Structures are given as C-alpha cells and as structure tokens.
C-alpha cells in the first residue's frame, strides 16, 4: 500500500525543504513495505502506520531548525570518522563480527557464537542512515536481506548482547525507514532467544545455543545466576516487537520478569547484580550502577518514557531503586569534591567507578527534563552535572586525555586507575553519552568542547591504518593497541558524537528513546 494523499504532500514538503537546504540525508525513495508471509492485512496495515509515522515525524524534524545550533564542520568530521571506520571493516572484515584494524582481518567476539553474524553491520546501520551515508547504508541493508542468518551460527548467543545489538538495531532501522525486512529479521532473531525464558521465575538465562535450543548461565556469574543488567535490558525491544507484530509472546516474557522483580524483597531497597532464575532469590550481594547493574536502571526509566509516560509502575520501580542507590552508593571525594557512585560487595564499599557507570549522568539529565516538579528537576540535573564532571576528570587526568575502564578514589588518588588491569580504553561511549544528554538539556558549550577534545584524542591515539582501535593504557603514549574496533564504536560512540554537533531536532528526546546500544526507538503515540 502506498502513502495517503495528504501524507504524500507532507512528505514532499518536508523533502523539498531538505533538498533546498542540501541536507545529506537518506531519502527512502523505494519506501514500499514488503509483507511478511502469512500475516493478516490489518496487522500489516497498522504496523505500517506506526513505522511510517515515526519516519515522517523524523523527516519533518529536518526543517530549518536543523541547522539551528548544529556545528556543521565538527559534525561532518565525525561523519568522516564513521566512514573511515566503516570502510576498513568493509574492506578487511566484511561479514565478521568486528574488524581488527591493525591486522586487517575479522574479529569474532565470543558473545555471538561463531559464524558470520556481521555484528558491526547491524550495529552500524542506523548510524549510517542518520548520517546520510547512503551507499554504506545500502551495502548494510543488502547484507541483512541476503546474508544475515543467525540460525546457522555455532556456539552460544548472549541473550542480552543479541537483544540490544541485533534486535534493537534492527527494530531501530525499521522504525526509521519503515522497511519490513528489518522487522522480519528482528523477529527471527528474537525467536532464537525465547528458550532462555523457560525458567520457573521467568528470569531468563544468559546464553542460548541456537543449534540445540539449550539455555545456560555464565559459569562465572555467582555460581550460575542470572545478571541484573542482562535480564533487565530486554523490555524496550521486546515490547516494541510485540507492538509491531501484534504478537504478545515477547511482551509476555517481559511482564513475567517485571512481576518477579516487583515481588522480590529488596533489602535497603537495593538490587543485587545476581539473581537465581530457579528460586527467584538473590545470589551474592554486589550492587553497582556500572558493569552488571547499569542498564537495568536505564531501562526502567526509558520504559516509562517510551510508553508515553503511561507505564507508571516502571517509574515507581526506577524512583525507588535510584533513591536506594543514592542513599547507599553516592560519595564525594575528599580533596576535590568529585561526586561518584561506589559499589557494594557484601558489606564492603569499593570506591571504584566504571567507565560504564558514567552513562548515569546522561540518564539523570534525561530524567531531570521529565520530572514534574522543579525540585526534582534540579536535584537530578545537579547529579547529572556532577557525575559528568567526575567522568571528565577521569579523562583529563590521563596522558591521552581519554579515560580508563575503571577509576578509583582513595586518600591520595581521585578519578584515577590504580590497577594495571583497568587502564585500558576500548572505544566505549558512556562518558560521551553523558555529555551528549547534558548538552541537549543545558546547552552548556563545555560539553561540546569536551567531546571535540575527545574526538581529537581519538584521532591521535586510537586511529590506525584501517580504522580505530582500543588502547591498553590511557596513561601512556606508547601505541599499545588492542587491535579491535568494537561494534559499539559504530552504534554508539560515533552516533552520540554526531548528534551532539547536530541540532536537537535530529531525533528529539520527546519522540525517540535510545536503547542501551544507542539504537533509537519511537515513543508510543496515541495513534
Ligand atoms: C520546523 O520545526 C519546528 C520545530 O520543530 C516546527 O515548529 C515547525 O512546525 C516545523 N516546520 C515545518 C514546515 O515542518
Ligand atoms: C503499542 O504500545 C502502546 C503503548 O505501549 C499501546 O498503547 C498499544 O496498544 C500497543 N499497540 C499494539 C498493537 O500492541
Ligand atoms: C507469536 O510468536 C511466537 C514466536 O514466534 C509464535 O510461536 C506464535 O505462533 C505467534 N503467535 C501468533 C498468533 O502469530
């Protein structure tokens, strides 16, 4: 089915403005959704409308306000970085999970079994589209249409990673373009994950073997328990998938998890990072907003926002969890009054913050602009700003001006790594992500300046012959690379950098919610 007449005019109008302004944005001229076999006409129809609505709203965002406060030359520099990283992957590692940019060959992360899954392609495609890299987008689309086949992979798929990168990435590009093939693939891949949910509590296991359908937990995770950030980061994708397919299989899985975590007693209001999926009891006590905890908190807030603020239960769970975290884990350093979130291991406080945990400044910024009272707005904005400052300090105190994997606070040291094993940087996005949200919310130029410094540092210390590489020690300028171009560089780091130098009308927060891999999904509307 084609566009209705008024929609055509609307679209034409928007495109004309686009054309006049010379905006390089992919225009979907073959926008004709293809049907999934056997699907009812009405299901197809309403799904098309949801998808197209997101698409049209997005295009309309690109009018004269587009250049309002964009910094075009910096934005385009980031686009060039993306193209350079993509070209290296395409030339030397096409179809592999990731690129080894120094050895110039493919790299296979163990989280997606073994096989040609093209993780970098699926993770990158929405970024390519948003940046208007049309040829690159078309190459990625062709791979997904003709080669992507997760059913054929050997070994175990990580339910969490597969969901946030593959299902999330495919749903996002579906939402942006309305192309049905992406939805079809997202559903196909989500179906492979379903055996993980067959537990007495509905809390899923971490790994699924695609060939056998057998699910398992990581052996290292507190004696085979499920991980909070993993089972807590499925909701945005699974609900949206049910919404688009009119099949409640996926949202039912999520409802069961919600029920379990709502009912479980939480000592001091805190969630541990490990839960036993058979008994529904906590395993060893480790509380953190960094690794193993992080995106559980993120998805509670974002589920509330993506529902059009209808899912009040999610907001309540979020508010309670954050209150407990603030009460028990928020500290201020002695010398420089740097605010940070520590971790709790049993009864012991570990004064360490992960690079991963820096995402929370972005989350608080987003929360602050959605709180009803001025008092709460101010409170969470202050937290966001203070944490972003601390994360910036972790960057500013290194030789490379790039921050480490984890940093610590002691009598003498503040925001510095003290262990050799945590001085590396693997192209992670969370610090930049925080600055991006804060830029949108505060318009304080310092966030753009920090991002631009980081861009220059990346070009100096991470750029190699065929792409960008992680480095082993941010405190040394010695060219010690890890030789991996992580797929999240393309999905997240470059996307946030591109967006901070773009106008706010590009993917506005009141219409899009970014999943934890930076794949934007549309906010539910009262259609
Ligand atoms: C352009 O964008 C602004 C701000 O989003 C909006 O108010 C206005 O209606 C848009 N104009 C057109 C022609 O779409
Ligand atoms: C999609 O989600 C919205 C908001 O969560 C809900 O109101 C709507 O009924 C859903 N539609 C379908 C078809 O599931
Ligand atoms: C919903 O999806 C599940 C998983 O793919 C499938 O088994 C089931 O038949 C579907 N239900 C309907 C009504 O299409």
From TrEMBL:
Give the principal location in a single coarse category. Golgi
Any one biological process term the GO annotation gives: N-glycan processing
Taken from the UniProt record, the cysteine pairs bridged by disulfide bonds within this chain are 358-391
**E.C. number(s) listed in UniProt:** 3.2.1.-
User: Which parts of the sequence bind Ca(2+)?
Assistant: 516
Compartments where located = Golgi apparatus membrane
**Which InterPro entries does the entry link to?**
6hp_glycosidase-like_sf (IPR012341), Glyco_hydro_47 (IPR001382), Glycosyl_Hydrolase_47 (IPR050749), Seven-hairpin_glycosidases (IPR036026)
Q: Does the keyword Membrane apply?
A: yes
Question: What keywords are annotated for this sequence in UniProt?
Answer: Calcium, Disulfide bond, Glycoprotein, Glycosidase, Golgi apparatus, Hydrolase, Membrane, Metal-binding, Signal-anchor, Transmembrane, Transmembrane helix
GO-annotated molecular function: calcium ion binding; mannosyl-oligosaccharide 1,2-alpha-mannosidase activity
From the UniProt record, give the pathway where this protein acts.
Answer: Protein modification; protein glycosylation
| Cofactors, names only | Ca(2+)
Question: An example Gene Ontology cellular component term from the record?
Answer: endoplasmic reticulum
User: Reaction catalysed?
Assistant: N(4)-(alpha-D-Man-(1->2)-alpha-D-Man-(1->2)-alpha-D-Man-(1->3)-[alpha-D-Man-(1->3)-[alpha-D-Man-(1->2)-alpha-D-Man-(1->6)]-alpha-D-Man-(1->6)]-beta-D-Man-(1->4)-beta-D-GlcNAc-(1->4)-beta-D-GlcNAc)-L-asparaginyl-[protein] (N-glucan mannose isomer 8A1,2,3B1,3) + 3 H2O = N(4)-(alpha-D-Man-(1->3)-[alpha-D-Man-(1->3)-[alpha-D-Man-(1->6)]-alpha-D-Man-(1->6)]-beta-D-Man-(1->4)-beta-D-GlcNAc-(1->4)-beta-D-GlcNAc)-L-asparaginyl-[protein] (N-glucan mannose isomer 5A1,2) + 3 beta-D-mannose; N(4)-(alpha-D-Man-(1->2)-alpha-D-Man-(1->2)-alpha-D-Man-(1->3)-[alpha-D-Man-(1->2)-alpha-D-Man-(1->3)-[alpha-D-Man-(1->2)-alpha-D-Man-(1->6)]-alpha-D-Man-(1->6)]-beta-D-Man-(1->4)-beta-D-GlcNAc-(1->4)-beta-D-GlcNAc)-L-asparaginyl-[protein] (N-glucan mannose isomer 9A1,2,3B1,2,3) + 4 H2O = N(4)-(alpha-D-Man-(1->3)-[alpha-D-Man-(1->3)-[alpha-D-Man-(1->6)]-alpha-D-Man-(1->6)]-beta-D-Man-(1->4)-beta-D-GlcNAc-(1->4)-beta-D-GlcNAc)-L-asparaginyl-[protein] (N-glucan mannose isomer 5A1,2) + 4 beta-D-mannose
Q: Name one Pfam family in it.
A: Glyco_hydro_47
Q: Where are the transmembrane segments?
A: 9-28
Query: In the UniProt entry, which residues are flagged as the active site?
Result: 161 (proton donor), 294, 405 (proton donor), 430
Supply the enzyme class, top level: hydrolase
Membrane topology annotation? Single-pass type II membrane protein
Q: Which residues form a coiled coil?
A: none
Q: Which family does it belong to?
A: Belongs to the glycosyl hydrolase 47 family.
Listed name of the protein:
alpha-1,2-Mannosidase
């Amino acid at each position: 089915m084609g566009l209705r007449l008024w929609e055509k005019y609307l679209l034409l109008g928007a495109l004309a403005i686009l054309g006049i302004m010379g905006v390089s944005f992919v225009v979907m001229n073959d926008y004709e959704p293809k049907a999934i076999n056997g699907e009812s006409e009405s299901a197809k129809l309403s799904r098309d409308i949801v998808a197209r609505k997101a698409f049209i709203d997005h295009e309309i965002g690109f009018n004269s306000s587009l250049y309002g406060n964009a910094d075009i030359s910096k934005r385009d520099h980031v686009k060039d970085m993306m193209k350079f990283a993509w070209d290296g992957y395409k030339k030397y590692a096409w179809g592999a999970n990731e690129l080894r940019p120094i050895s110039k060959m493919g790299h296979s992360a163990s989280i997606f079994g073994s096989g040609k899954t093209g993780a970098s392609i699926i993770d990158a495609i929405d970024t390519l589209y948003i940046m208007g890299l049309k040829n690159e987008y078309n190459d990625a689309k062709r791979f997904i249409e003709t080669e992507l086949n997760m059913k054929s992979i050997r070994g175990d798929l990580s339910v969490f990673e597969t969901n946030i990168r593959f299902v999330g990435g495919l749903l996002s590009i579906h939402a942006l373009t309305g192309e049905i093939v992406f939805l079809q693939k997202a559903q196909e891949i989500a179906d492979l994950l379903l055996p993980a949910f067959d537990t007495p509590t509905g809390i899923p296991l971490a790994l699924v073997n695609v060939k056998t359908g057998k699910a398992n937990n990581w052996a290292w995770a507190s004696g085979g328990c499920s991980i909070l950030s993993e089972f807590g980061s499925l909701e945005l994708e699974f609900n949206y998938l049910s919404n688009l397919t009119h099949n409640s299989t996926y949202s039912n899985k999520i409802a069961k998890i919600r029920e379990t975590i709502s009912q479980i007693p939480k000592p001091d209001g805190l969630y541990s990072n490990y839960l036993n999926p058979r008994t529904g009891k906590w395993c060893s006590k480790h509380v953190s907003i960094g690794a193993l905890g992080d995106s559980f908190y993120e998805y509670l807030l974002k589920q509330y926002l993506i529902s059009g603020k209808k899912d009040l239960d999610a907001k309540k769970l979020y508010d309670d969890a954050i209150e407990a975290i603030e009460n028990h884990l928020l500290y201020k350093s002695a010398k420089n009054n740097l605010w940070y979130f520590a971790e709790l291991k049993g009864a012991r406080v570990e004064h360490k913050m992960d690079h991963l945990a820096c995402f929370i400044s972005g989350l608080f910024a987003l929360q602050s602009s959605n709180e009803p009272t001025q008092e709460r707005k101010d409170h969470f904005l202050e937290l966001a700003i203070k944490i972003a400052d601390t994360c910036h300090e972790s960057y500013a105190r290194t030789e490379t001006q790039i921050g480490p994997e984890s940093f610590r606070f002691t009598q003498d040291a503040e925001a510095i790594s003290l262990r050799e094993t945590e001085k590396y940087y693997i192209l992670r996005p969370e610090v930049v992500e925080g600055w991006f949200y804060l830029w949108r919310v505060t318009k304080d130029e310092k966030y753009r300046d920090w991002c631009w410094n980081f861009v220059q540092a990346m070009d100096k210390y991470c750029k190699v012959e065929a792409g960008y590489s992680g480095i082993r020690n941010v405190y040394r300028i010695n060219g010690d690379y890890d030789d991996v171009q992580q797929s999240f560089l393309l999905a997240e780091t470059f996307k946030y950098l591109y967006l901070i130098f773009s106008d706010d009308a590009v993917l506005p927060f009141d219409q899009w919610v970014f999943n934890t891999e930076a794949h934007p999904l549309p906010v539910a509307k009262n259609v």
